[in-house]
Design goal:
4 copies of one chain form a homotetramer.
Chain A: E1 8-16, E2 19-26, E3 35-44, H1 47-55, E4 57-58, E5 61-62, E6 67-68, E7 72-80, E8 92-95, E9 98-99, H2 105-112, E10 123-124, E11 137-141, E12 145-147, H3 154-158, H4 160-172, E13 180-184, H5 188-199, E14 204-208, H6 212-220, E15 225-227, H7 231-241, E16 247-252, H8 257-266, E17 267-275, E18 284-286, H9 288-293, E19 297-300, H10 308-316, E20 326-331, H11 335-344, E21 351-355
Parallel strand pairs in A: 13-14, 13-16, 14-15, 16-17, 17-19, 20-21
Antiparallel strand pairs in A: 1-2, 1-6, 3-7, 3-11, 3-21, 4-5, 7-8, 8-12, 9-10
C-alpha cells in the first residue's frame, strides 16, 4: 500500500442547473484506518440526481458549490485501511451511500437505536454538500461496503441502493406472506418496491400509474394487476382481490397528494400505507377522517437502514432479478448525455447506469 | 329469574337537534343466553353525545329516528343469561359499549385478529341506529361487561370508557417507560390520555390548549408542563425536555388541522403521533414532507379494543385516579339540563355524569 | 334445504390402540344458523392422528371413547345456516379445524386479542373428546370454512392445515426477506415450514434430518442446503451462509431435546427459535446460559391462528406448491391401511391423504 | 487542558480469589477525541464483582491477570476530548459500562441494528480482560456518559446501571400498563426489576424469594404481593390476581432451574418470561411441553441497550426511587471490607456502594 496513488480523477460535477461537467478533480488520498478505497464500477442515475440537475435543489437541500452527483454505486476495493477486518483489495462491493457522522448527541441516539438513517448529521453521497460517486474513486467506511458474491455482477450490485427503499418499506410496513399490496407510481422506486414486495411474499401486487409503458414493465417483473385509471379503479381492484376489504399494505411512490389519498383509499381498515414519494409542495391535503375511522396508519420512510445485507442475499439467491430494470448504459464521459436521455425517456427508461470502470 | 320484569323504563331520547327528552320507552326483555341484564347506575356525557344533540350527526352517522344517547356507563347485573359463566346478579360492572355483530366476513376477519373495533358491523351504544345507555336497563353480552372490585365505585367504573382511548393510545404508540409525550388538546379526551400516559410510565407529559382552566386541571392530574401558546412554543417545550430532539410520542386530541401539524412538529424524528381528534372537515393539510424526512408516523385510532381489563386494573390498583375529572352530577330526569350545562361550561366542566340508578 | 338429509354416514373411528374401524355413524343434523354442512372431500393423515392410533393418547389428551380421527380437511358446502353471509352450496372450502367455544372468560380474553388458538375451551377435530373429519359430512362454523378459488383443488385445500404451522411460524418469528433459516426435522411439519419460509422471503433455508430421503425431498421443494449430520455440522452450515453469525431464525420441528439445542446452536445472537416439535418427555435439558449470553429467544407455537386466508392466497397465487408433498392416496374404506402404510413408510411418505368424496 | 494530569491513581484490583487489593496503578492518559475523562464518584458492588472475587471467573470469562473490578459507576467529567459535542468539565454523569469496539463485521451488524449489547467484541468494565471502575479516573466514550440533572445525585446515578436490566426487561417483554408481573428472586436484580416494572405501569407485581428480609424490602418499594413458598404458591398468587389466567409477564432473576420453571408455571398462556439469572450449570431442565401447549415465550436478556437515557429520566422525574436500595457505603480503601460485608449480609444488603470521590 505504499505505492503512489493517483492524485486526480474524472468526475461528473454539477456546477449549476443543467450544467453537469465531466472534469478532472482531486482524487481521495489514502483511506482512513476504517475505510476502504473503492474504484467505482457502476453508478445508477436516480431521480434525485436528475432533480438536482434540473432544479439545483431538493427541498431544503441546495447545491451551493460544485458537487459530484451519483449515489447508487458499486466498485472494486483497491486499498484497505489498517483497521478493516474483512475486506481486501479485489473484493467487489455494493456501497451504502449514507454514513452517520456521529458528531452530535442526536446522531448517537439514533445510531444506537438502529435508526441511523435518522441521524441529523448523516453523510450521504450527492446530497449537498457531500460529493457523490460519479467518479473513479471513493474512500468509504468499510462497514458500509458490502461484498458481492461471485454470482452477482457489479452492475446488479449498484441496484441494491434503489432496491433498498423497497426492502425497507416491506420490512417496516410490514408486508407478510400472502398480503395484497397496492403501489401508487410505477417509476423506478415503485418498480423496485414491487420487486421487494414480491420477495417479501406478497401474493398480489396491484400497481398504478398513468403511463402504460411503465405498467407493462410492472407486469413483466411480477405485478399481478396494473391500473391506469383513477383512485376509484385502484380501490375497486384492491377490494376485488381481498373479499371486499382492501389492500393489506399500500406503498405510495408517486409523490402526488392525489396518489397519497388514492393509496389510502385502496387500503383496508387497519392497513399501513408507506409514504415514500415527496409531493412538490411541502404539504398535502389528506383524507384525515378516513384515516381515523378505518385506522389506516401512515408510515413515512426516509431512505432506509440495514438493507444492504438483505439486498445482497436477495440478488445472490436469485429471489430478486434487477436486470430487467436496467434500461440503458453510458460511459462516465457520457454522463451529461445520460441525464438528457433519462429526462427525454421517462416513460420507458427505468434505470440508466453509468459504467465508470 | 322467572319473575316478572318491568316492561317499560325511563330513557333520555334524542328526537332532533337540541331535542332531548326523558320519557318512557320499552325496557329490554329477558337477556339472551350470552347476555346479562344490567341496571344502569352512571353514564358519563361524552363530546359525541353533545355533538349528536347539537348537530344530529357526526360525519356519516346520522340520527334518523329517536335514539337513546349515552355510552360511558356502568351498572349492576340484575339477571344473567343461561350461558354466562362468570357474572351473577349483584355484580357491579363497567360496560364496554362496542360489540361486533359478526354478521359479515370482514367482521370475522377483524375479530379474529384482535382488532374488533374495526368490525364494520359493530354495535355501539348511541351510534345511530343503535340505542345508548341513558336509561334504566340494558341487555349486553356478558363478555363486554367487566366486574368491578369492591374498591372501585360505579361512578369510577363509568370512566373506563373515556379512559380507554388513552389506554389504547399508550399501547399502540407505544409509550414506553421514561418517554416524553406531548398532547394537543386538554379536553376530556386529552386529559384521559394524560392519565393513561402517566400510568404507562411517561416521564414528561407536555399538554397544550388555548383554555387556561383546562391546563390548570392538567397540571393538577400530572402534566409536567403545559403550553397555552402556539406550535412553536409546544415544539420548544418538547425539545427542551429531550436534549433538543422532540417528543417520543405525540397524541392529537384537539381535532384541528393546526393542532395535528403542531403535534407533528413537536415530535422527534422517528416518533409516532397518535391521531384521535377528527377535524371538522373531512381533510387536513398535513406537513407531509416533514413527516417523510423525519419519519414521523401517524397512527390514527378509532375507539379502542381490549382496554377494559386494563382500565379495571388501573383503577383498582390506584395507578389512575379519575375522580378529579368528574365535574358535575345530574339525575336521569335532568339529562337535558346536563347537556345545556356541558355546553355552557366547556372550559371548566371536564366530565359531567348522570346518576341513573 | 327442507329436503331430507342422510341420517347416517361412514367414518373412520378409533376404538383403541391400533383399532381403527370404518363404520356407520350418525350424520350431523341441520347446520346451526352460523354453520355450513360440508361434504368432506379430502383428509390428510397427520402425525397426531397416527400417534393416537399407536398410543391412544398425546400427553394429557386421552382417547377415552370411540373418536373419529382426521383434521386436515376440505370439502364442498352442501347446506348453509340461516345467518351465513358469504358461503353457498357448491362452494369448495378448506376447513380450519379449531374453533373456540367461547364458554369461559379466558376464552373470550384470548379470542378478543386475536390469539384464539390459546382459548382453553377450543374445539378441535380429532382431539379428544372432539370428533374429526374422516367421515362424509361435518357441520362447521362458516367463518372457519375458507372458499377455494377455481385454480386450487380440494386436495391442495386440505394441505392448508399442515401448511398453517409454517405460515404461523414465519409470521411470529418473524422471517423477513433475505433471512437465513435453519429447520431441524424434515418430516411433514419441517417440510411445510420449509415451503412457508421460502414463501416469506427466506434467502437460505438449511434443513437437517437423519433420513436421506427426506432431505432429498427438501432439496426438491426449495431447501438451499441439507444437513444429515449432527449439531456441529448444522451450526457450521448456518455460519458459512451468514458471514459467521448464524441463522436469523430457527424452526424446531423434530421434537427431540438434542434437536432443540442444535437449533439454538445454529441460530445467531438475537435470533428467534420457533419451537414446534414436542419432545417425548415433558421436559428437555436446554443450554440456558447459551440462550442468555446470546439472547436467543424461544418462541413456542401451539397450532396457529389467522393462517387460512394466507394459505388460500399462497396456493392461489402459486407461491407455494404443496402437490409434491402428497405421497399417496387412499379411499375412506382404506383408512386403516393408510395408517399402516404411513407407519411403514415414514422415510418416504410425506403426506398420505384419504379421498372421502 | 494542557496542564499536567496525575500519572497514577488508586484502584481496587482483583489479584486472585479473595485477593482484592487497593493499590496504586497507572492512571489513564489524555482522553481520545471522542472520550471524556471522568473522576469516579460512586461505584456499586454487583453480584458479578463478588462472583469474580469468590471464584475468579464467570462461565467462560476468566480473570487471568490482575483486574480492576466495578462497573456500576458515576462521576464528574474533568476533561473532554476534542470531538465531544455536549459534555464539559464539571458535568456529573452516569457511565454506561459496555462499549462496542466495532472491530469485526458482526459487531457492526449488531450496532447498526440497535442491539449493540450483542456485539461480540464489546468492551465492558470489569469483564476480563477489561478493567473496571473501582478507581479514581476512567477515560470513556462521551456518548456512553449521560449527564445527570441537578436533582439526581451521583450516588443515584451509579444505580442506573443495575436498574438498566429492569428497564430493558420491561421494554422487551414488554410490560404494558395494567399488567400483572411475577418476579422470581428478590436480590438486587429482582428488586431493580420490581422498580422498573412498576414504573412501566404494572398494576400488580408478585415477587418470590426464600429470604423474608428481601421480601420485606420488596413490599417496601412497591411489590403488591410477596411469596416465600414454592412454585405452586407463586402460581396460585398469579392466578388469583388475573381471573385465573396467570401473569402477563414473568421475570426470572433467581438463576435456578426450579425458579425458571416456577416463573413459567406462574405465567399465563401467551405470556413472555424474561430470563436474566444464569443457573450455575450451563443447562436447565425446562418444562418444554408446557411452554409449547401454552405458547409461553422465553426472552433471555444479556445486559441491556439504550437504557441510560430512560434511567436518567426515571430518576429525574421521581418515577423511580433507588435510594432505599442503597444499604451501606464504603470508601475506596475499604473496598475489600465491602466485599466481605456483602457476602456476610446477603439477606439484608441489597446494594453496597463505594464512595470513591
Amino acid at each position: 500500500m505504499s505505492e503512489e496513488i493517483q492524485k486526480t480523477m474524472q468526475a461528473a460535477v454539477l456546477h449549476g442547473v443543467h450544467d453537469l461537467r465531466v472534469e478532472e478533480v482531486a482524487a481521495p488520498g489514502r483511506p482512513q484506518p476504517n475505510e476502504v478505497r473503492v474504484q467505482i464500477n457502476t453508478v445508477g442515475i436516480c431521480g434525485s440526481d436528475v432533480h438536482y440537475w434540473e432544479h439545483g435543489r431538493i427541498g431544503d437541500f441546495i447545491v451551493e458549490s460544485p458537487m459530484v452527483l451519483g449515489h447508487e454505486c458499486s466498485g472494486t476495493v483497491v486499498e484497505v485501511g489498517s483497521a478493516v477486518p474483512d475486506l481486501k483489495p479485489g473484493d467487489r462491493v455494493a456501497i451504502e451511500p449514507g454514513v452517520p457522522r456521529l458528531s452530535t448527541p442526536a446522531s448517537h441516539f439514533y445510531m444506537k437505536r438502529g435508526e441511523y438513517n435518522l441521524c441529523p448529521d448523516i453523510f450521504f453521497f450527492a446530497t449537498p454538500p457531500d460529493h457523490g460517486a460519479f467518479c473513479d474513486y471513493v474512500n468509504h467506511p468499510a462497514d458500509f461496503c458490502f461484498k458481492l458474491p461471485d454470482n452477482v455482477s457489479l452492475e446488479e450490485g449498484a441496484m441494491i441502493e434503489p432496491l433498498s427503499t423497497g426492502i425497507y418499506a416491506a420490512r417496516v410496513a410490514p408486508i407478510v406472506t400472502g398480503d395484497t399490496v397496492v403501489i401508487t407510481g410505477a417509476g423506478p422506486i415503485g418498480l423496485m418496491n414491487l420487486l421487494a414486495a414480491r420477495a417479501a411474499g406478497a401474493a398480489n401486487v396491484v400497481i398504478s400509474d398513468t403511463v402504460e409503458e411503465r405498467l407493462q414493465m410492472a407486469r413483466q417483473i411480477g405485478a399481478t394487476q396494473t391500473v391506469r385509471g383513477d383512485a376509484a379503479e385502484l380501490k375497486a381492484a384492491a377490494r376485488e382481490l381481498t373479499n371486499g376489504r382492501g389492500a393489506d399494505v399500500g406503498i405510495e411512490a408517486a409523490g402526488h397528494p392525489s396518489a397519497i389519498n388514492a393509496c389510502i383509499g385502496a387500503a383496508r381498515a387497519g392497513a399501513t400505507v408507506v409514504l415514500i414519494g415527496m409531493p412538490p409542495g411541502d404539504t398535502a391535503e389528506i383524507n384525515i377522517n378516513d384515516l381515523i375511522v378505518r385506522e389506516v396508519k401512515l408510515r413515512p420512510i426516509f431512505r432506509y437502514n440495514n438493507t444492504f445485507p438483505t439486498g445482497v442475499n436477495l440478488l445472490a439467491s436469485g429471489r430478486v432479478d434487477v436486470k430487467p430494470l436496467i434500461s440503458k448504459r453510458f460511459s462516465l464521459k457520457e454522463t451529461p448525455e445520460a441525464f438528457e436521455y433519462v429526462v427525454a425517456n421517462r416513460a420507458t427508461c427505468v434505470k440508466a447506469v453509468v459504467d465508470v470502470g
